[in-house]
């Protein structure tokens, strides 16, 4: 069932409640987020309330502290799709304005959570803060819930292999090239999506043909070569090897994301793709000539094929 997306309090006020609600930015929708979302759905099922999310666009720090604003792994629409997969039925993407930033904690709870969203249960992580200058915390939320008639549940953070799962940690892992560990914290591979654009034509003639990805993503894997899985927007998918970097062998100046498919492309090249990053193979390297680069790409392909023999790429 596709989640319904609301984009203003006025729109939500008409039909949002009664709701089982969680609140946050949910960038990446990682394993810790997923645990909260599943609990929201469980509470909603038990009580006949709609499992719901309140999130914000732009990220609040872009309004209140732009210099500290993080690069984001996901767009609001991507987050909605991922939350829908956990069972969320509706999402309010609240425009985060200076006026919203000025709301006192009590006013935020009364005007937004109670009056507009008819929240009957509010579930948050233990580090949840809300209201002007982050003045509200989980203790105050519990007090307001008792006063205003909604249940509050605070869930502890999630630790996997002695690492606290967080969006900032996943960003760090991706940007240092550790996509395998990032995938474990996300509970799925880190992925980029975007349009396929024309390259410089050098690869098809001198090395191997590739699909060139143009993406609006703010978080990119460190320069290097990765085992990947590539999926077209219309469904087909292929095992692949992807290079993120500047094509130093050819004197490249602009960052490119080039994917070499390890299975035949039996139809016209896709116009839009999603590339999942599974494992880092090596740093990007400058070769003396295209022949040496082609030989290295074929070695990379053999290593990737060995990976997929262990971990099949299903169509």
Give a verbal description of the structure.
- The protein is elongated.
- A hairpin with a 2-residue loop joins strand 7 and strand 8 (163-164).
- Residues 201-207 have low confidence and may be disordered.
- The chain contains 11 helices and 14 strands.
- With 315 residues, the protein is of the alpha/beta class.
Give the arrangement of secondary structure elements:
Layout: E1 4-6, H1 9-13, E2 19-23, H2 31-47, E3 50-57, H3 61-64, H4 76-85, E4 90-95, H5 98-101, H6 105-116, E5 119-125, H7 138-148, E6 151-155, E7 159-160, E8 163-164, H8 167-175, H9 179-186, E9 190-197, H10 202-206, E10 211-214, E11 224-232, E12 237-245, E13 256-261, E14 272-282, H11 290-310
Parallel strand pairs: 1-4, 2-3, 2-5, 3-4, 5-6
Antiparallel strand pairs: 7-8, 9-10, 9-14, 10-13, 11-12, 11-14, 12-13
Helix pairs in contact: 6-7, 8-9
